[in-house]
Amino acid sequence: MLRTLGDAGDWNQVAGTKEEQEASGKRIRARAWAADMLSIRHAASPEVLAALEERVHHRSLHKDWLYHGLDGAMALRTLILLQAPNATATARFVLWRDDPGLGPVVDPRWNNPRAWTDFRVKMVVFPALEKGPGAATEKLCRDYLALSDEEARRLAPPLFAEAAKTLLTVSPRTETALELMEHRLRTVRGQAILVCLKHASEDAWARRALEQAAPHALTYIVQTN
Question: How far apart, in whole angstroms, are the C-alpha atoms of residue 32 and residue 60?
Fold first, then answer.
């Protein structure tokens, strides 16, 4: 698996013909599979972690969105799930990356910012970080939530709701929920309320947050016997 993950000399060679694209896609899938299997097997040696980080930084380029960056996305997810020391820093790098090298694989049919081409790798970040609590994860979420709409849109399809959910998952506290319920975006405030509703029947912190900032939502709490 480690050899397969590292067999990526073609990562920045954009396949042209249909046959070349199919062959490139097959190699990308193999690397993605290897990264996922390393997670399943809890392989966290220094060599494995270094290979995963290399794959994230050098995710494969492909003109078909089904394959572009797939190996990097799975490598990043594995790094986070294995709780690699640099996982959150690598996730931050991915979220804020706007790679000039994406030019050859940008689809001209869509008038989106260049960085959106890496959407697959970026969208892995917040769901995976729910499994990686800690100060670095909380700071990353808060830094993202502090972005303006314009700043976020330059980086990827906006992920504010996902960042809010992750922050409240890794910091299940009344104070965190109240912080999110005061955010400028309705999507963030709504996500915080939904998470609190999910926990309100069993967790006092969630009910307190709803009572203080969204008492209207208390009617939606499902009462269990």
Answer: 10
